[in-house]
Write a structure and sequence with these properties.
The chain is α+β, with helices and mostly antiparallel strands and about 325 residues long. It has 2 domains: about 90 residues, Phosphorylase Kinase, domain 1; about 190 residues, Aminoglycoside 3'-phosphotransferase, Chain: A, domain 2, CATH 3.90.1200.10. It has 9 helices and 9 strands. The protein has a 5-stranded antiparallel beta sheet, with helices on one face. The chain has a two-stranded antiparallel ribbon with strand order 6-9. Helix 3 packs antiparallel against helix 6, helix 5 packs antiparallel against helix 8 and helix 6 packs across helix 8. The chain is globular.
């Protein structure tokens, strides 16, 4: 279980005394997640999710909580942070920054069809549009400087072939950036496990703690790399076109985004290959933390490179 900080019912009951959420009925650790400690919380007033932040600081967190509150007010189905009796979203529990948010209905998918991908594309476009009116900003902590640093840290664990691939790709993206494309706040981690479905309808988007300012197309590429891939790391044409067309209907792609699409797909694949390598070889202390397979995103990256720009588009 990805629970780094233990919370007992007694400790949570004391913490919840500063909220108007009723009495605690149930507390369950959530087995997914890599960056934070999460619990499902049920009180006499409803169902919530408690998060204790293991890396993000109290100074960084207001951006994410204010963003979720902004998006929820603008009709995006995302967790809404709950304020305490002092109108604060952020507190401290067991020495860690902590918040409690509304728990959304639905469940994540292990397999997605074209209709699911279209629904995700539409809601991602809506998120990007709604976030345009959010005044706060957050640099991407996993941009070029992080890629260079993380690559140096994991390189010694790799085979010569993988190290050469990593070096080559980091150098490629240093020369081919997405900085000139339309920018805005992105989710940056809209994988299948971060989207809840109620039947064919998106019930919620969760885990906004990688959100940042970056290329909007990069966010689309991150999403496509998870939702539209087959087992061999190849883009499924029907699912990819469904997602892109639905997104385009909400926020039309610009001509320069079309030409940059192959670069965005490679940048998105590199980011998750690197982060998974880091979590595998340089893990933080925790209890039975689930480490995801870096090989999956290495294959995806290799397929994007082999496509040599001939990638599925609208």
């Amino acid at each position: 279980m990805a629970v780094f900080t233990r919370v007992t019912e007694t400790e949570l009951t004391a913490w919840l005394s500063d909220y108007s959420l009723g009495s605690l009925l149930e507390l369950h650790g959530i087995a997914s997640g890599i960056e934070n400690t999460n619990y499902f919380v049920t009180t006499s007033n409803g169902r919530f999710v408690l998060t204790l932040f293991e890396k993000l600081t109290s100074g960084e967190l207001p951006f994410y909580l204010n963003l979720m509150s902004h998006l929820a007010r603008h009709g995006i189905p995302c967790p809404s942070p709950v304020a305490d009796r002092h109108n604060r979203f952020l507190g401290v529990l067991n020495g860690k920054p902590a918040c409690i948010v509304s728990r959304l209905s639905g469940k994540s998918l292990t397999r997605a069809d074209a209709a699911h991908c279209a629904a995700v594309g539409a809601v991602l476009g809506q998120l990007h549009c709604a976030a345009q009116s959010f005044a706060e900003t957050m640099p991407n902590a996993r941009a070029a400087a992080w890629r260079t640093r993380a690559a140096q840290q994991v390189r010694s664990f790799l085979s010569p072939q993988d190290a050469a691939l990593l070096d080559s790709e980091v150098a490629f993206h240093a020369q081919h950036t997405l900085a000139a494309l339309p920018q805005g706040i992105i989710h940056a981690d809209l994988f299948r496990d971060n989207v809840l479905f109620n039947g064919a309808r998106v019930g919620g988007l969760i885990d906004f703690y990688f959100a940042c300012n970056d290329s909007l197309l990069y966010d689309v590429a991150i999403t496509v790399n998870d939702w539209c891939m087959d087992a061999d790391g190849m883009l499924d044409e029907a699912r990819t076109r469904a997602l892109l067309r639905a997104y385009h209907a909400v926020r039309p792609f610009q001509p320069e985004e079309h030409s940059a699409w192959p670069i965005a797909l490679r940048a998105a694949a590199l980011r998750f290959w690197l982060s998974r390598l880091f979590n595998l070889h340089l893990p933080r202390e925790g209890e039975l933390v689930h480490v995801r397979d870096p090989e999956q995103f290495k294959r995806i990256l290799q397929q994007h490179i082999a496509a040599d720009g001939n990638t599925v588009w609208l």
